[in-house]
Amino acid sequence: MEPESNPCPPGHRLYGPVRWLVALNLLSVLLLAFVAFRSHGASAAPTAWEYKVEEIADTGFDDRLSLLGKQGWEIVWFSRGVNGGSDATVYETQVIFKRPAH
């Protein structure tokens, strides 16, 4: 029995069953991408957002963020600075939040 000849050029690594596995994997990825694109739908209406702007002092900052997060708010932008005027330095963070409109 003669050994099967390799139809690929010398040095080519993908031949026989390996080529079919690569082609099958590529086809699977393309199919999944197509299904993902169709499930999101090109005709879906864009999301409407509502926004909230707050100045939050350092004391209670974590608790306030946790509460707003539970209410569905996400941080879009923030800036931290000193709210001064008195001798005591008070740091505040200005935060813009968004969430899908109800």
Could you describe the 3D structure shown?
The chain has 102 residues and is an alpha+beta fold. The chain has two domains: 8-41; 49-100, 2-Layer Sandwich (Translation Initiation Factor IF3), CATH 3.30.110. Helices cover 33% and strands 27% of the residues. It is built from two helices and three strands; from the N terminus they run αβαββ. The chain has a three-stranded antiparallel beta sheet, covered by helices on one side. A hairpin with an 8-residue loop joins strand 2 and strand 3. It is elongated. The mean pLDDT is 78.
What is the gist of this entry?
With 102 residues, the chain is an alpha+beta fold. The chain folds into two domains: 8-41; 49-100, Alba-like domain (Translation Initiation Factor IF3). It has helices spanning 17-40, 61-70; strands spanning 49-57, 74-82, 91-100.
What brief labels describe this structure?
102 residues, alpha+beta, Translation Initiation Factor IF3, three-stranded antiparallel beta sheet, 2 helices, 3 strands, 27% strand
Question: What order do the helices and strands come in, and which of them pair?
Answer:
Elements (H helix, E strand, L loop, with lengths): L16 H24 L8 E9 L3 H10 L3 E9 L8 E10 L2
Antiparallel strand pairs: 1-3, 2-3
Under CATH, the homologous superfamily of the largest domain reads Alba-like domain
Envelope shape: elongated
Distance, first to last CA: 74 Å
User: Which CATH architecture of the largest domain?
Assistant: 2-Layer Sandwich
Read across the widest sheet, the strand sequence of neighbours is 1-3-2
Helix content: 25-40%
CATH class descriptor of the largest domain: Alpha Beta
The largest β sheet comes out as: 3 strands, antiparallel
Structural class of the helix and strand makeup? Answer: alpha+beta
User: Compute the gyration radius: what is it?
Assistant: 29 Å
Give the H and E element order: HEHEE
**CATH fold label of the largest domain:** Translation Initiation Factor IF3
| Count, helices | 2
